[in-house]
Design a protein that fits this description.
Number of strands: 51
Helix content: 10-25%
Distance between the termini: 54 Å
Largest sheet: 21 strands, mixed
Radius of gyration: 46 Å
Length: 1258
């Protein structure tokens, strides 16, 4: 269906569409007012017939097609101004002769074709200003061409077979660009006439030029800016070429020049110099005076170090310097003063070293030093700015120690008088000054302009100073600012001027007067405005204004009723207030207006003023997904089994479900990226309401096939490879919708290499992105209404006029709310999700989730102080024993309970100190709190004896106070049901008994506090499994227990581990419980071995014997046997699965440290866990740094963010550098460790390592 917009189109760019065969859109002939048309790279084989209808066409481009002729249609375009048909297959006979007789024709471009002669009648195109016949096979130019085309500005005859040019060329007095390159011109001698003063560009590359056929004088060409004399027979530099005062670009490459001289005062405006592929051994003398030089090409010469001027540093505007393939051994120090240098090529020389200052060039982006085998790079100075590689944070050791409050240097070196001057800093300051000097010209112009504006502004302000005026009152201000509105358009004349009742209904935002017969009928979906006018005895009129709101009315009606009630009051100049009445809640005064009763009518009589938006039906779409670097490419394909290919991953969007189908030969990395794409798509476009399902070709669920083709069965035809290996998606085309006074234009945005970037979209514009099978209309926030309407109609026309697949869809995109599919078409828009998911909800609410914004605002605060603190020293055994005594001194009673079934029962006394990983325990401890009055100081003398005696008599009946603490202990394999059972049953009983004297402490396995551990006096055993199950099964298998203390003997635990030989370590004590299959004659059921490691501390030997005797063998039916390492019986090894090598060194216990790296505070911080850490201290949301004295492990949790991983990596490097200075005899190596993939060296750091806990729902 036509939108009627095509006749208003003045220009359109249809380049890069496929118009081969009969695909050219016939709708083009409706664009009768078109003035320009681009059909470049459109696969055209002939000139479309539709062009003959475009009688107002002025500019036509059909470059890079397959045209053999342009006969017919071009002759029907009387207003044609430019014809550009380069890069085709047009012959001379294929050009109509009558087109050159058009009076308005000014631009002719038949370059890169198959012309052998100049087109006939070309001399009649007398208005031509641009003529391009380059890259053809033309051998001669007729005299008439130069005689008649005297208005030519640009003439390009390069890459032909011209041997001579007619002397009439001197008649081209307006010529500015002359290109004759790559022609023989053996019989042509360039004679520059004074009439050619306008010439700006002269190209004579590869035209057999030498000193004999070049003009001897150049001073007449005062406007010449570019000259190309490359690939000629020049043996010496052309003399008098320096007469070209305004020359900006000079190319004499690929000649045989051995010496060049620049006289003083010459080439002052030169910006580009190309002297490559010559025989030069030195730069031109005086080149350092060309201070505007920006680019120098001097590769493939014989340059040596002495041939480079020492004052090359004066070229402060130099940006590019090519010196490849020369004989350079050194380069001058002055190059490091070219502060704007961006590219430096020195490959294939004989360089030995470079100047020290080469690293300090601020803009240097590329430096090529290949094929210099003997080069030794100068040491790179420490540059703080280049160290900020991770989120703008300086992770250098010296900086972090300074932040932590520690000095990285000795005190002697900090004395100001002893610090030498920094040579590197001096060079930096010099380069900064030179850079300022290079930019000074532009900056001075800006400052002058700003100063002028400021002076003009001050002058205007001084002229417009107001005089003294009286101060206005608030009433005068209100009257002055009150808008003068005319309400006569809403209310009829005579309303409210006499007694009566008027009722209006709201329709399409405006009040409409209701007939008197229906004033008491109120529709529940409408709103009404009611006016009651009463005449008082004094003759004055009073008004009552109501607005009535129906229960089912729309928002616009209710709002307009309130607004027009105020408008009615202003119209009547009344002083009453407007009164709101709601349906079913009317006031008595309101009902009295209608005789005490009104009639409710269902429905609504008037229409809403809002547009009704109907949701379009969702269409299922299938995308073939590919990955190109970080860019995800989604190619829509038909929804059928023939579209599937086992080498690809497909995304099937069903609305409520997003399926990801992976072929058997597809790559898993691609599937993972497509899943991330689907997650972003669901989060941004569906608000998380869609389900994401993945399946593989080998196992496809029935639900997928049901959604795919309505049947749970897989298709009968096999899924085969059908996509060509060289398949490339259609090139994207971005159209910019432009409007003017009665016309529309649709040019294309130039896409370099076909790449789309987000910055191409301007907020005041509307764009159409054509991806052939997807068309997007993008609307900027500041685009005007007419532009939006034009874009909407044009996208409909583009969809219909060009040949497309049936499954093509049109999508509307609004700036800031673009869909994930639209963003995926642009490079770098949606490649990485810039969020840190480890932040808490409170942090995200306060600071946002965008890491880039946080870094820019906060400069990413860090806290690495913990890395520089000393390790907590271990507590001596004497201090530990004393601490146990002190913690037990005030303990009066301790009672233990264990969860059995659904209730807590009292724990048998012989099980005190034995815990199971799947159980929960409760310990009720009563602590004595001495009465303050009972404390009698021993320092008091004998004189106080009587006073103390009297106090004692008064307080002897007063008992000491107490406090109860309930410890809830939960095993690492126990669920939370035990805690819930405790809080709803046992805890309530304790609270009733002890009231405010009760304190509840919840603890987890191996995370107990010292007070609690002291009550067991180092006899703390943790067994695997559940208490009842283990006791009932009888323990018919061998069990191995590992005794270990972390930090102090107070934290001694004996934990059951895997019963294997490789679990042993010579630095600890172990207890092996080995049951017999059948009790022996003496009734002994087994043996308990107490294995003493050779390097274990003797302090723990009696402790191990007590634990084995009281807790492991508490029934007393096992024999006890203490064995030292190396004295084991065969039965011992048999119980451990055979004798195998085991570790003999436990020195890591003296160095173990655990650091946690997190962003939960809103910035990156590192904190250290206590020395008594365990496996459960590894937080899955964070990154951990673990040190064992030899290796520093970087452990990354499965839910840790990429930001935390990168910052933790740098923090670990800082820690290793710090420990290298502190403990040079203990070098450390950084090792990565992932959850579920930990090495044995990592696991041994943790006491009683077992499987990771899996959170509920994972």
């Amino acid at each position: 269906m036509s939108t009627g917009v095509l006749p208003f189109v003045r220009g359109i760019d249809f380049s890069r569409n496929d118009f081969s065969g009969e695909r050219f859109p016939h709708e083009l002939e409706q664009m009768t007012h078109m003035t320009w048309l681009k059909l470049n790279r459109a696969q055209l084989e002939r000139v479309p017939d539709e062009l003959s209808r475009l009688t107002e066409l002025e500019h036509l481009q059909m470059a890079r097609n397959k045209l053999a002729n342009v006969h017919g249609e071009l002759s029907d375009l009387p207003h044609l101004r430019s014809v550009i048909v380069r890069h085709n297959q047009i012959k001379t006979s294929g050009i109509p002769t009558d087109i050159f007789r058009m009076k308005d024709l000014t631009i002719i471009d038949f370059s890169n074709n198959s012309l052998r002669d100049v087109p006939s009648n070309l001399e009649y195109a007398k208005c031509t200003i641009v003529l391009n016949l380059s890259h053809n096979n033309i051998e001669n130019i007729p005299n008439q061409v130069f005689s008649n085309l005297v208005d030519l500005i640009l003439l390009d005859l390069s890459d032909n077979k011209l041997d001579v040019l007619q002397p009439q060329i001197r008649r081209l007095i307006n010529l500015q660009v002359l290109k004759l390159s790559n022609n023989p011109l053996n019989h042509f001698q360039l004679k520059l006439m004074p009439s050619m003063k306008t010439l700006r560009v002269l190209s004579l590359r590869n035209t057999h030029r030498n000193l004999n056929n070049l003009p001897p004088m150049w001073d007449d060409l005062e406007n010449l800016q570019e000259i190309d004399l490359a690939e000629n027979d020049l043996m010496t530099f052309p003399p008098n070429l320096h007469q070209l005062k305004n020359l900006a670009k000079l190319d004499v490459s690929r000649n045989k020049i051995s010496k060049i001289e620049f006289p003083e005062g010459s080439f002052e405006n030169l910006r580009t110099l190309n002297i490559s592929v010559n025989e030069l051994s030195a730069f031109p003398e005086g080149i350092v005076r060309c201070i505007k030089l920006q680019k120098i090409y001097a590769s493939y010469n014989k340059l040596v170090f002495s041939g480079l001027p020492g004052g090359i540093g004066k070229l402060i505007q130099l940006e590019l310097l090519y010196l490849s393939y020369n004989d350079l051994e050194l380069i001058p120090e002055g190059i490091s003063r070219c502060v704007k240098l961006q590219k430096l090529k020195l490959d294939s020389n004989k360089l030995i070293t470079l100047p020290d200052g080469i690293h300090l060039l601020p803009d240097l982006k590329e430096m090529d030093l290949q094929n210099n085998p003997d080069i030794v790079m100068p040491p790179k100075p420490s540059d703080k700015q280049k160290a900020l590689a991770y989120y703008n944070i300086d992770f250098s050791l010296s900086h972090q120690m300074k932040v932590a409050g520690q000095s990285p240097h000795s005190s002697a070196s900090s004395v100001p008088g002893n610090v030498p001057k920094d040579a590197v800093q001096r060079k930096k300051d010099f380069i900064r000054r030179r850079r300022y000097q290079a930019d000074q010209d532009g900056a001075s112009k800006v400052i002058q302009g700003m100063s002028k504006i400021a002076r003009d502004k001050n002058m205007n302000q001084s002229e417009d100073l107001p005089g003294t005026q009286p101060v206005m009152t608030w009433k005068e201000k209100m009257e002055k600012t009150q808008p003068k509105l005319d309400y006569s358009a809403f209310f009829e004349e005579g309303v409210g001027e006499c007694e009566g009742l008027w009722v209006w209904e709201i329709e399409n935002f405006n009040p409409q007067l209701v007939d008197e017969d229906y004033q008491d009928n109120f529709y529940e979906g409408d709103c009404y405005l009611i006016l009651k006018t009463i005449k008082e005895l004094s003759g004055n009129l009073t008004h009552q204004i109501y607005y009535w709101i129906g229960e089912k009315t729309t928002l616009d009606k209710g709002m307009c009723a309130a607004v027009h009630a105020v408008n009615l009051r202003n119209y009547l100049r009344a002083s009453c207030r407007t009164i709101r009445e709601e349906m079913n809640d009317e006031s008595d005064e309101f009902l009295e207006l209608f005789g005490g009763e009104i009639i409710y009518v269902a429905g609504a009589r008037t229409q809403s003023g809002f547009f009704t938006v109907e949701k379009t039906a969702f269409v299922k779409r299938l995308y073939r997904a590919t990955v190109n670097g970080s860019l995800v490419i989604m190619e829509p394909v038909p929804v059928n089994a023939e579209s599937l290919d086992p080498r690809f991953v497909f995304l099937y969007d069903c609305g409520k479900t997003i399926w990801i189908w992976s072929g058997i030969r597809s790559r898993i990395t691609v599937a993972n990226k497509i899943r991330l794409f689907a997650v972003r798509m669901n989060k941004r476009d569906r608000k998380g309401k869609s389900e994401i399902e993945t399946c593989n070709q080998r196992k496809v669920p029935e639900e997928f096939w049901n959604e795919f083709h309505g049947s749970p069965d897989a298709p009968e035809e096999p899924i085969v490879e059908h996509v060509p290996l060289d398949f490339e998606p259609e090139r994207k085309k971005l159209y910019n919708v432009q409007i003017g006074m009665g016309f529309i234009e649709l040019p294309q945005v130039e896409l370099k290499s076909g790449v789309l970037k987000q910055n191409m979209l301007q907020t005041k514009s509307v764009y159409i992105l054509d991806c052939t099978s997807d068309i997007f209309l993008w609307v900027g926030k500041k685009a005007n209404r007419l532009l939006k309407m034009a874009g909407h109609k044009l996208v409909m026309e583009l969809h219909s006029m060009l040949e497309r697949p049936e499954y093509t869809q049109i999508s509307r995109e609004t700036e800031g709310e673009e869909s994930t599919m639209f963003r995926s078409k642009f490079v770098g828009w949606d490649d990485i999700v810039p969020f840190d998911f480890t932040m808490t909800a409170d942090t995200v609410q306060r600071r946002g989730a965008d890491v880039k914004v946080i870094l820019e605002r906060d400069k990413m605060k860090t806290d690495l102080v913990a890395l520089f603190l000393d390790r907590l020293p271990p507590m001596s055994h004497e201090d530990s024993d004393q601490m146990i005594m002190d913690c037990n001194a005030d303990l009066e009673v301790i009672e233990a309970f264990v969860l059995q079934g659904r209730k807590f029962v009292k724990l048998p006394s012989n099980e005190f100190g034995t815990f199971y990983t799947m159980d929960c325990y409760v310990f009720l401890c009563r602590y004595g709190v001495p009465n303050e009055d009972s404390d009698i100081s021993d320092e008091e003398g004998e004189e106080g004896d009587e006073e103390r005696a009297s106090k004692s008599d008064k307080t002897e009946d007063k008992a000491d106070d107490f406090k109860c603490v309930v410890y809830f202990w939960q095993g690492r394999d126990a669920g939370n049901m035990g805690w819930l059972q405790f809080t709803f049953s046992l805890q309530k009983k304790f609270e009733e008994l002890f009231k405010d004297k009760l304190e509840v402490v919840r603890m987890y396995q191996q995370q107990e506090n010292h007070k609690f551990l002291s009550h067991f006096n180092k006899k703390f055993v943790i067994r695997r499994g559940r208490r009842n199950l283990t006791m009932n099964s009888g323990g018919k298998w061998p069990e191995l227990f590992h005794m270990r203390a972390n930090g102090s003997s107070l934290c001694t635990r004996t934990i059951q581990i895997d019963c294997k030989t490789d679990q042993l370590n010579s630095g600890f004590c172990y207890i092996l419980r080995r049951p017999f299959p059948i009790a022996d004659d003496e009734g002994v059921n087994g043996v308990v071995y107490i294995w003493i490691g050779n390097k274990s501390e003797s302090y723990y030997h009696p402790v191990a014997k007590e634990v084995a005797d009281e807790l492991i063998n508490r029934e007393g039916d096992f024999s006890m046997e203490i064995i030292n390492e190396g004295e084991e019986p065969d039965e011992f090894w048999e119980a451990l699965g055979g004798k195998k090598p085991f570790e003999t060194n436990a020195d890591f216990m003296n160095y173990t440290r655990l650091f946690r790296c997190t962003n939960e505070k809103g910035y990156f911080s590192v904190s250290e866990k206590t020395v008594d850490f365990c496996q459960d201290d590894l937080d899955d949301d964070d990154v951990m740094i673990i040190d064992n004295g030899e290796l520093v492990f970087l452990w990354i949790g499965t839910r840790a963010s990429e930001v935390e991983g990168k910052l933790a990596y740098k923090a670990a490097q800082v820690y290793i550098g710090h420990m290298q200075n502190k403990q040079p005899d203990k070098p450390r190596k950084l090792v990565l460790s992932l959850k579920f993939h930990e090495s044995k060296r990592f696991k041994r750091i943790f006491h009683g390592w077992s499987k990771h806990k899996v959170p509920a729902g994972d």
